[in-house]
C-alpha cells in the first residue's frame, strides 16, 4: 500500500498525517503553530512530520511524497506560500524547504480549502462529469469548486465566498461581506452586541438556540439567512450537482443544515431546488485537510 504525508497548516495548529492512496488516514499528529517568526513556524511543521513518523514507526523513505495545505494565496507551480493573514510566510518557499529537509522529490502545495475540498470530493464519490462545491464555515468562509474532476481556479482567487455581500438584518439591513456578517467570530460578536453579554461564545449561541432560548432564535435565523444568500449566488452561477459543508461552525452543529436548506429554498426557483437533496455535511470533518493534502501526492 502506497503512503504519503499530508500536512494541514494553520495559524493555531499544524496537523500531519500518513495517508494511503485510497484516502485512509493511517496515523495523525498535531502540534501548536508558532506564527511569531517564519523559521519558528517552519520548525513546527518539521516537528509535526517527525512526530507522526515516530508514532507510526515508519520512515520518511516509506513515503511517496508530501502534500501541504496552506492558508491564503499559493503559487503551486513554484511551491511558494505567497500571502496569508495568519502566518509569517510571505513568499515562503515551502516546497524547496521541505525537499531540502526530507529529501523527497514529490512535494505538492495548495491552498488549504482546496486540499480539504479534494478529500471531500473523493469521499462524496461525485461523478467525474459533475460540478462539486465544498464550502467551509469556520473562522472564515470560503469554498472550492471541482468541475469535471478539475479545480476551477479562475485567475487564481476563485471560491472566495466570504467576500460576497449579503443583506444582513442585524447589520441594520446594510450590505456586508458574508464572512464579516456570519463566520464564527462574527456570530460571537453579533450575539454579544444583541444580548449585551460580553462573555458569550459562538458555542454558547448554538447551545442556547438548541435549548429553545427565545432571544437566540433571531440571531441564528439571521446568520443562516446570510449563508443562504451566499449559497444562492453559487446556486445561480454554478448550478452544482453537490455541495458539502465543512468547518467547525457547521460541522459541529449539523442541525444548521436543515435551517440553511429552508432559507435557500425560499430564494430558489423550482429549477434550482434539485440542489436541496444533494447538500450534506462532511463526514471526515477536521481531517479533510490532512487527507486531501496527502491524496494530492498520488495525482
Automatic annotation (TrEMBL):
The keyword Kinase applies. InterPro entries: ATPase_NBD, ROK. GO terms for molecular function: kinase activity. Keywords: Kinase, Transferase. Pfam families: ROK (PF00480). The keyword Membrane does not apply. It comes from the Bacteria. Gene3D superfamilies: 3.30.420.40. Belongs to the ROK (NagC/XylR) family. This is Glucose kinase.
Amino acid at each position: 500500500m502506497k503512503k504519503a504525508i499530508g500536512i494541514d497548516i494553520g495559524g493555531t495548529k499544524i496537523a500531519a498525517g500518513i495517508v494511503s492512496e485510497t484516502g485512509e488516514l493511517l496515523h495523525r499528529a498535531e502540534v501548536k503553530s508558532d506564527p511569531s517568526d517564519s523559521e519558528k513556524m517552519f520548525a513546527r511543521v518539521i516537528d509535526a512530520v517527525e512526530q507522526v513518523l515516530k508514532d507510526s514507526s515508519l520512515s520518511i523513505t516509506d513515503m511517496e511524497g508530501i502534500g501541504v495545505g496552506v492558508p491564503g494565496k499559493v503559487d503551486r507551480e513554484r511551491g511558494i506560500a505567497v500571502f496569508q493573514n495568519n502566518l509569517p510566510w510571505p513568499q515562503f518557499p515551502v516546497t524547496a524547504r521541505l525537499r531540502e529537509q526530507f529529501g523527497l522529490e514529490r512535494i505538492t502545495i495548495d491552498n488549504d480549502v482546496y486540499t480539504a475540498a479534494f478529500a471531500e470530493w473523493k469521499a462524496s464519490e461525485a461523478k467525474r462529469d459533475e460540478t462539486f462545491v465544498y464550502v467551509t464555515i469556520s473562522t472564515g468562509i470560503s469554498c472550492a469548486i471541482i468541475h469535471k474532476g478539475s479545480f476551477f481556479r479562475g485567475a487564481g482567487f476563485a471560491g472566495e465566498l466570504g467576500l460576497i455581500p449579503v443583506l444582513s438584518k442585524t447589520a441594520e439591513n446594510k450590505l456586508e461581506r458574508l464572512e464579516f456578517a456570519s463566520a464564527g467570530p462574527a456570530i460571537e460578536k453579533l450575539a454579544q452586541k444583541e444580548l449585551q453579554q460580553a462573555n458569550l461564545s459562538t458555542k454558547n449561541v448554538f447551545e442556547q438556540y438548541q435549548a429553545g432560548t427565545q432571544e437566540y432564535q433571531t440571531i441564528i435565523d439571521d446568520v443562516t439567512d446570510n449563508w443562504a444568500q451566499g449559497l444562492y449566488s453559487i446556486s445561480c452561477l454554478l448550478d452544482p450537482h453537490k455541495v458539502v459543508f465543512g468547518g467547525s461552525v457547521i460541522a459541529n452543529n449539523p442541525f444548521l443544515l436543515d435551517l440553511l436548506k429552508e432559507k435557500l429554498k425560499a430564494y430558489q426557483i423550482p429549477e434550482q431546488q434539485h440542489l436541496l437533496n444533494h447538500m450534506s455535511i462532511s463526514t471526515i470533518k477536521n481531517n479533510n485537510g490532512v487527507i486531501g493534502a496527502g491524496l494530492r501526492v498520488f495525482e
